[in-house]
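Provenance

Sequences were taken from public entries as deposited. Structures were produced by running a predictor on each sequence independently, with no templates supplied. The record for Cytochrome P450 from Glycine max is shown for reference.
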Amino acid sequence: MLVYEAVIVTAVLCMLYFLHRKRCCRHPLFPDYPIIGMLPPVLCNLWRAHDLISDVLKQHGGTGEFTGPWFTIMNCLISSDPINVHHVMSKNFHNYVKGPVFRDIFQAFGDGIFTADSEAWKYNRDLFHSLFKNRSFEFFLEKTIQNKVQNSLLPMLDHMHQQRKVVDLQDVFGRFTFDNICSLVLGYDPNCLSVDIPEVAIEKAFNEAEESIFYRHTVPKCVWKLQKWLQIGQEKKMTEACKTLDQFIHACIASKRVELSNDNEMGEAHHVDLITALMREKQTHDDRFIRDAVFNLFVAGRDTITSALTWFFWLVATNPLVEAKILEEIKEKLETNEKTLGVLSVEKVKKLVYLHGAICETLRLFPPIPFERKLAIKADMLPSGHRVNPRTMILISLYAMGRLEETWGKDCLEFKPERWISEKGGIVYVPSYKFIAFNAGPRTCLGKDLSFIQMKMVAAAILYKYHVQVVEDYVATPSLSIVLLIKDGLKTTNWEPPQPGFIECAKEGQCFDVGVWFCVITMEHSLRHKLFFNLDFKIPKKPSCGDRTI
Ligand code: HEM
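Predicted structure for Cytochrome P450:
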């Protein structure tokens, strides 16, 4: 009898809870099922989760609610509406913080800039800002990247080309950016990028820590907490990865302290890596503070650039006319006819406006950080009319924002660097609450300028030397991780130098988009504006403009 009553009471309580959820969730994005909430449609479309969310947000006017399984803290308000984004990120900035749940999930970041709020965040931000803007750091950055491209990246690709090997460009860029960020932050190069493709323990540990952080987003808190306590599964990997990373970073800090104390004065000019600058800035920074700063900078500068470069090369390889235009710009603006370009200086990459537009276009379509997460402190009303209760989690889909017809037009799904080029030939300014790849408001990315420098140096050096092709029947699918990488990497093959005809085609011709790509080539350069031979050709399956089969 008692069991019978207990079942009835439980059923009634469940029904009340279900109704309560329904009443609270006024703008559901998906059907809300008992117990499992809105998970089923997401789980069934996991392989295209970002596109699913973009589509659903579009159907619901840009903002709506997601409720997770019962008694979990997965409920959130998701938005891709620029007015809401401006409100959350800038106008009412102080009401929206990272919060304790974020810090719990991103525990490996310690008290660094990414997880910090209020005064701690402000302190970190001012500190990093002064470090990045330092002239000697800019110079150090330029030399470090030039050296890495010249002495590791290009030789590695040469080797792969000679061996006729399939190259996973994503892996190559992952190694490249890891070496770079280690050099920039610690003044130490672990040489992950070399022809024998070594397995470097610290790089592996970073990957595992990031996978575990993503895992914590996908399961209820009690599950990963229990796993952590029992030291099993992904949580065991997380503990081991953090141990490896901490040992490495602390060893670097200790040796740097010895190195600096051996110097006659702390101000020796040759130390310009960020850890030295941090120690110099304030000698009272303890090891814990420096460890957290180093970890946060590693994450900031590694996967974001890897993601952006990988998607950029995939988009360029599948849009040969864009590739041709980039090469044309390099030849025209830098007045070079040399077969090899070498690695450009900061001053020279700044001249490459079309390349800049192509990178912006990549970041619009594939923002390396696809979601931004905030927690409301007090109740608020979004400009779209959605109510925000205290402790509501807000997710901003950067991915969906890059595909909004209202912002980018009907051709928003096309890769068109031209949309970034103004009539005067400069870069079109788009406010950050619309072009949000680098975040918006007071927490805008501090590494934006140095990211462009790095990406443009790499892109120009590779494209000028090679005509990158992706392997046949390759499909690029976004990975499910905190950074938007390509699932299974970017497999490229048949690395050929760009053939003369390829560049000529761009130089003599004009490329434009009329729904289908046409390439209009003039017979004589001098006749460019008078006589067009309208020779249309389809993009060949394997991009190769050099053979001019029309
Ligand atoms: C393509 C490259 C990059 C992209 C798309 C990018 C994007 C972003 C985004 C979306 C945020 C906000 C993250 C959050 O608050 O959760 C951010 C913050 C930040 N980024 Fe970047 N980032 C890039 C490269 C870099 C690099 C190379 C560095 C420096 C080494 C850097 C340093 C930072 C820092 C310090 C913050 C924290 C700012 C704050 O909270 O005040 N980023 N970045």
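The two ends are 84 Å apart (CA to CA).
Residues 1-91+375-402 form one domain.
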